[in-house]
Amino acid sequence: MSATKAARERATIVDVARAAGVSRQTVSNVLNRPELVAAPTRDRVRQEIVRLGFAPNVAAQQLRRRRASAYGFEVNPSLVGKMGHILDGFLVELTTTAPGHQSHLVTFTADRDDVLAGYRQLLGTGLVDGFIVGDTRYGDPRPAWLVESGVPFVAFGRIWDLPALDQWVDVDGRAGMRTAVEHLLAEGYGSVAFLGWPVGSPAGDDRRQGWLDGLAGSTADTPSLVEESVQDLNRATCAAARLLERMGGAGAILCASDLLALGAMRAVRAAGLEPGSDIGVVGMDDSDVAEALELTSLRQPLREAAVAAWRILHGDPKGRAPALLAPTLIIRNSSTRSQEKKP
Amino acid sequence: MSATKAARERATIVDVARAAGVSRQTVSNVLNRPELVAAPTRDRVRQEIVRLGFAPNVAAQQLRRRRASAYGFEVNPSLVGKMGHILDGFLVELTTTAPGHQSHLVTFTADRDDVLAGYRQLLGTGLVDGFIVGDTRYGDPRPAWLVESGVPFVAFGRIWDLPALDQWVDVDGRAGMRTAVEHLLAEGYGSVAFLGWPVGSPAGDDRRQGWLDGLAGSTADTPSLVEESVQDLNRATCAAARLLERMGGAGAILCASDLLALGAMRAVRAAGLEPGSDIGVVGMDDSDVAEALELTSLRQPLREAAVAAWRILHGDPKGRAPALLAPTLIIRNSSTRSQEKKP
Predict the structure, then answer these.
(1) Does B267 touch chain A (CB under 8 A)?
(2) Do B178 and B166 belong to one domain?
């Protein structure tokens, strides 16, 4: 889709005002100061905004404010710094690539009880023109609210509840897991068990499906070899120990994250076995822990994801939405059978 | 120092103009658009700015711009995400504590060849009111330039070359290392060797001094047991192996960082010994790797540092500058002699 074509197709604020039977100023108020507008009018205008697919033009906003555009990025203090949490890496890549897209990044934290409050407040300061929304989840109120409010945004993570919204970038965990299964079978581990998160998280379910995909294409038939653990090292170690008992001292364990994989490595060693030469172990995220422990892991293409996010946000014709990017398998000692072990 | 007293003592733009024999507008130009001012005049004005200690008032700037104040924070892509790099943790804490100080954070990257260019560019956009300058070093051009340019800032890390500038927050690595030596001696390791970075980095030299301080207060006399390595796992492992040979299979290794400590743990295991029960190992930064590997480490008080930084930046009477904060020793299996080993 070319930029010109997009501009031609895009509904204007006048279209929205006409359809809702209100003035242009009222539409603007609904977008910028909704508290000034009576609830029934506000709802009618928002319905028309969504129906017509109206989105304020980033370039026009930028011109009006006569400064570089800036975008808010939510930092979740309870997640950041945790092993395998990749949003801090994504933040760095967004910052690094921002100048090439005439953009700046403003970090903020959201309220735990009212997830939209932080977004509302930051918009109110006039500091940002839109958002990059990370860590999307089932029942996420942010995408719908941003569309209704006419605020430009791009999501890092699929917009799971609103399949019609394609303004997202994500990493194809499913394809990555399939690649990992193929690698483990090619290494001769015979069977590939799965240590995943409890069913119900979009990324976790997606990764589990990739494991099943990988098995479906092989002669190994082990889809019953699965255990679940939340993202906690001790619980992951226990879950992996249960899995190991059922595996009969052979095979490989594919894990939904590096932290789960670290638990698996601990369980393997506790059973008197060696990761790699005895039991294959693969994680996902390629955290610094994976590198330090010689753990094979799926690396997320964060630089590529950041560039795709900026392009989609700015309506750059080179940025195709949605963007589903493949992770790369970084092979280390934990998933190779014949190797020289490092000390 | 109370806020009122600070205001009374502070030189104004009029004082600078009078002293330099120029108009108020010229001083303002030197600060905001130096390219408009002839070099000799610019130099004269800058000399008076530094001599009179003139610093534009953050609150006044904020009022003038009629929006929340925002501060730039440089992200160094070559450092972030590396094990034990604590600036991403600091960024999260700055973001979390910003709303309590009516502030926002704008991340940016600096040019490798012209470290000031990124600062100049971001100032030029009008998006930020000042900076939080991390990763200070010997020969750092940023503090002097920011003072000369009249840009409000606070440093995370001492302003090593300009001892008269006290607007910084730092973590007392020296005190932390002394505490670690005392802990290792109390655990009965007998001798404490040091694995540090090559002499010449301010934080590294400071930590080494803390090790010497700790030995000086004890009966253990092992200041010759020192090896150096850059921040690289393989080199750290080799350096630790050399150190171990000289230690005769007993004692402890105190390391300047978690990455060096990870190398030490590898060398210990390669020598057929066990970290903790045979050789004590302590790192610094309390990275997620330290937690995963049961490595004792010095945790930096990043939340406290962020709050102190905001207070100093805003001239909050509760924020005393400089702020030198003590790290906390997090004791794990790698530095305790009698323990139940986790799998």
Answers:
(1) yes
(2) no
Distance from CA of B86 to the nearest CA of A (A): 9
Is the minimum CB–CB distance between B262 and chain A shorter than 8 Å? yes
B20: left (phi over 0), alpha (psi -120 to 50) or beta: alpha
Give this prediction's pTM. 0.78
* A22 shares its domain with A133: yes
A103 within domain boundaries:
yes
How far is it, in rounded angstroms, from Cα B12 to Cα B23? Answer: 13
Q: What residue ranges in chain A does DSSP mark as E strands?
A: 69-74, 103-108, 130-134, 153-156, 168-171, 192-196, 226-228, 252-255, 280-284, 296-299, 323-325, 328-330
pLDDT tens readout for residues B158-185: 998 888 888 999 999 999 999 999 999 9
Rounded Cα distance, A123 and B294, in Å = 43
- Residue B213 Cα, gap to closest chain A Cα (Å): 31
Residues A42 and A129 in one domain: yes
Identify the pLDDT of residue B158. 94
Q: Is residue B154 part of a domain?
A: yes
User: Would you call B25 an interface residue with chain A, using a CB distance cutoff of 8 Å?
Assistant: no
Domain contains A50: yes
User: Inter-chain contact A106–B70, Cβ cutoff 8 Å?
Assistant: yes
- The answer to whether the CB atoms of A125 and B68 lie below 8 A apart is yes
CATH number at residue A233: 3.40.50.2300
Note the Cα A143 to chain centre separation in Å.
14
- Count: domains in chain A: 2
The residue among A14 and B273 whose pLDDT is bigger is B273
Answer yes or no: do B308 and B291 share one domain.
no
Measured in angstroms, the CA of B154 and the nearest CA of chain A are apart by: 18
Cβ contact, residue pair A70, B267, below 8 Å: no
- Predicted-complex ipTM score: 0.74
Residue range B188-218, pLDDT digits in tens: 999 999 999 999 999 999 999 999 999 987 7
Is A82 exposed, middle or buried, given 0-12, 13-18 or 19+ CB atoms closer than 10 A?
Answer: middle
Structural domain contains residue B342: no
User: Out of B77, B126, B342, whose CB is closest to A67?
Assistant: B126
A residues 129-188 lying closer than 8 A (beta carbon) to B: none
Containing B131, the helix (H) or strand (E) segment is: strand B130-133
Residues on chain B touching A342 (C-beta within 8 angstroms): 266
Res B247: pLDDT: 93
Range of the domain at A20: 3-171+303-325
Q: Are residues B134 and B213 in the same domain?
A: no
Contact A288 B288 (CB under 8 A): yes
